[in-house]
């Protein structure tokens, strides 16, 4: 999921999500985004199987009543009216098979009760079940849309250019149904330089979103008020201590871009950033004085210290969460080798915004190829460059 900013909407539109997005969520949730033929295929196949079984077993075997499986299967994927149409075809097949088996006399209880009455009754019940299924899907789609709106409001995607920085982001939540994850990021242009926060909340779901809201809200205030990164982290730590349950914590990396040619990094138990050079070489930033995650600062004495790292106009800073480096391969189960793969894939990202977008897209595609197309955890990739004055747009 590549997050994009969306406009607000009136109250009642699932927390600001437009009706068109709600409808899309509903269609995907209830498989209504598939064609009618594809949704009707299971019921039609069941109809064909029963017909063949009855025909091939001969006239001395009366298997036509097995046609009652058709409305039951149709209730899983079809709308009530579509179900009735398909079941009408099943009824025609039932009458044809009964005539073939010479069991088509209304006075024959096998035909009247064993076939006709049971088929009509199951069809009516299945239509009711289909209606109930669609109502539940609609309710789930609304909840899903509200969750998406909450996350879109929480993770405000920055512009491609913030201050002197160029940015490219990919964020994917492992909880696709809820569209809520525990990874967070923010980029702000402040009086003390452009500041970046990337973090990973312990846990998932609404609890993680609540913690992320506390961390991001505190960062968006402190980044403008505090001159140093340790002071910013201290403000966030105090807010987390007040508003987040004990034992919950958030790993984080802060980056401060104040002077050209370098970046100040503050490490709080998070995945170390990766610095990629124009020749494709890369190295993980080494922190001589790492610190505990946000929410655990009261357990240690002192304050974290920032690390100054050279960062030139042809360098790309790769910030990520553990969902990237701990993503296991589909074949060998090995962790994703970010340090090995990132260099060749993102080395040209400094050239332009187009190159940077292509770099993050290529890195994310490579991550998915490594895992076989599925991620077991939330994953965030944020690429940052600080081009020189003569760089391409």
From TrEMBL:
**Boundaries of every PPM-type phosphatase domain copy:** 165-386
Q: Does the keyword Phosphoprotein apply?
A: no
E.C. designation(s): 3.1.3.16
Keywords (alphabetical) are:
Hydrolase, Membrane, Transmembrane, Transmembrane helix
Is the Transferase keyword given for this protein? Answer: no
Q: Which domain of life is it from?
A: Bacteria
Residue ranges crossing the lipid bilayer per the database entry: 83-100, 112-130
Q: Which Pfam families match?
A: SpoIIE (PF07228)
Q: Which InterPro entries match?
A: Bact_Sigma-Reg (IPR052016), PPM-type-like_dom_sf (IPR036457), PPM-type_phosphatase-like_dom (IPR001932)
Any one Gene Ontology molecular-function term assigned to this protein's record: protein serine/threonine phosphatase activity
Q: Which PANTHER family match?
A: STAGE II SPORULATION PROTEIN E, STAGE II SPORULATION PROTEIN E-RELATED
Instruction: Report what the protein is called.
Output: PP2C family protein-serine/threonine phosphatase
Q: Which organism's genome codes for this protein?
A: Kitasatospora phosalacinea
